[in-house]
Design goal:
Strand order of the largest sheet: 3-4-5
Number of helices: 4
Mean pLDDT: 81
Distance between the termini: 122 Å
Low-confidence stretches: none
Shape: elongated
Structural class: mainly alpha
Radius of gyration: 40 Å
Helix content: 25-40%
Length: 212
């Protein structure tokens, strides 16, 4: 009995191994294996060559990033200003309440009339009045020292010009001294310039009295 001759293995399993198309694919893959890829139906297609960004595209991306950064910074600045205004309003109200407690015990307010808010617009002129207000309401003239009299107000360290020096003054969220004016009998005027240091910005002040 004669045994039939079997075809070579690669011809039996891969009948297309000697085809011209397969030979071309192998040749291309050998020189650049990333040039071809099979699609969903089994055909071989050439990959598209990668392209770089043009100068116009890069400028467009940079412009968009700049616009977004500007919007973000502007919004952050508005949030900070709103937060500082809210903090100053709360501190002015707390100082006003402390002065009322002082008056209830002493039948007079802490007295200082050296600053008139209708004529003085610079916070540097408020330092002496701020020092007087601190010592009367804090019960001492140094933040980190024990009080020598009754304490009516407990400021945060950020609200005091110095936590270890003598005669500090009370300052607003912008770092300026709070304004104070009272003759001891009438209710005190307490205000922050809200970083507006000229007469033109007075309508933006934060005050203990209602603004007209």
């Amino acid at each position: 009995m004669t045994t039939p001759t079997l075809p070579p293995f690669h011809q039996k399993i891969f009948p297309h191994a000697k085809s011209a198309t397969f030979a071309k694919v192998c040749s291309v893959l050998k020189s650049n294996p990333w040039r071809l890829y099979p699609d969903s139906v089994g055909a071989w297609r050439t990959l598209r060559e990668p392209s770089a960004f043009t100068l116009v595209e890069l400028l467009g991306v940079i412009t968009i990033i700049g616009i977004l950064a500007g919007l973000t910074l502007g919004a952050a600045g508005a949030v900070r200003r709103h937060g500082a205004n809210s903090q100053a309003k709360a501190e002015v109200a707390a100082l006003q309440a402390a002065c009322e407690r002082f008056y209830a015990d002493n039948n007079l307010y802490p007295s200082n009339t050296s600053v008139d808010p209708s004529t003085s617009f610079s916070p540097t002129a408020y330092i002496n009045a701020g020092q007087m207000l601190f010592s009367n309401l804090f019960g001492g003239n140094q933040y980190n020292a024990a009080p020598t009299a009754k304490r009516y107000f407990e400021p945060k360290p950020s609200m005091v010009s110095s936590t270890n020096g003598a005669n500090p003054y009370l300052k607003d969220p912008w770092g300026y001294a709070y304004g104070y004016n009272s003759d001891g009998t009438n209710a005190p005027l307490i205000w922050s310039t809200a970083n507006q240091n000229t007469s033109a910005g007075k309508n933006k002040w934060i005050t203990s009295w209602p603004k007209m």
